[in-house]
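User: Structure please.
Assistant: Input sequence and predicted structure:
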Amino acid sequence: MYHRVVHGFLTRIWDVDIIEVDFATISVKEQILIMSKTDILIGIHGAAMTNLLFLPPTATIIEYVLGDGFMVNNHFRDFAKWTGRSYIQLRGVVCR
C-alpha cells in the first residue's frame, strides 16, 4: 500500500521512472550498476543505504528515518555531504 501511494505521488509531481529494488535478491555487481544509474535514491535508514557511495555525483539521497530520529546515526547524511550529493532526511512513525 505505502509503495503505491509514494509511487503515485512522485509520478504526478515529476516525469520519472520509479524502480523498486530489493538488494537482498540481487548480486553486488547488479546493485552497483543500478546505483550508478540512479538519480534519486529513496530508502529507509539501514545498511543498504551504504550503496549511496555508488550513486552519480549529481544524485539526491532521501533517507526515511523511523521514529523521532533522536538516536539516529547521521552517517548517511555525512556520506552524502562528503561526496557532494544532495541529502534529505524524512522522519516518521510506524503505523500498523
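The chain has a mean pLDDT of 82.
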